[in-house]
Amino acid sequence: MMLSKIDVVIPVAQKDLLKLPICADRILANSLTPINKIYIVVCQDICKSNILGDRPVSYIDEITYPFSLDDIKVRLQYQNSQYNNSSWYYQQLLKFYVFEAIPNLQPHVLILDSDFFVSQKLAFLTDRDRAILSYGYPFKWLLDTKNYPTENQHSHIDFAKRLIPGWYPVNPFSGMHHHILLNREIVKQLFFEVEETHQKEFWQAFIDNVKFEKWNAASEYVIYYHFAMKFYRDRVVSRHLKSCDFIHDRAENDFTLEMAKETLETGEFATVGCHSFLDLRTRLKTMDYIPDDLRKPMLSSEHLIFKLILNDSQLQIETV
User: Fold this and answer.
1) Which of 53, 84, 155, 168 has the lowest CB atom count within 10 Å?
2) Final residue belonging to a domain, choices 207, 239, 271
3) Is 84 a residue whose pLDDT tops 90?
4) What pTM was computed for the model?
């Protein structure tokens, strides 16, 4: 049987350029599902830098999208957002709009965050063309347990329910794991339901439904994962991946990338991430999924650098 091919799309911002070659090399080396093309979504200035050299990738200028970062910024300012986080929602929408912005994509497209590295051999489609999605992190960060609550209060859940009629989470996991395999037909139906409900373009409805009690009040991964798992059970399956993610405030010295590289070389984890966050302290204060007894020691850490390990759904967090 000939295996179906996928395309890979990697949006990248200036802050993550050094991580992009690792991301691209690792998915090329470790995807058991054949890759047709890799597309890098970037602003025009990064296009010119050609950081990936002669690697077999195509660059997609963000200007091809039907909205800009300034459009998102203006819409958030109009709603009196208290946070400087327009780029956070912008990158989510870049992922959702790949089928509209990039011509001739395969029916399945693997979205990768540029600071996320596939470090073991992984398939992303089953032999029956079902998309393999990651359960990701639990909606509530409880350590060293598999007993997560089935009902959760969470801003990402509230947002998705406002945006999409009939949406609700189908399990205790968020689907947030820095990658996801999108299906063209599922994304098309998601857009249709949102635009019919709100009578405006998807990206406009997305931004207009953000509430500003939380720094990060929406997640593209949460939306798509549970939409697909609820309405398209015959086309998707879920798996747990043993993974290690380093997260740190952008102001910290970025030696975390070296730690991530060392972790990659051990081969212990299926995926390794190295994630730099703007104003991580503010974000930690408003993250729904962190219980107070975990939040307090994280906020009191001298350096905002943490190592997160997922192993068969069990979460561990270490201060680095």
Assistant:
1) 53
2) 239
3) no
4) 0.95
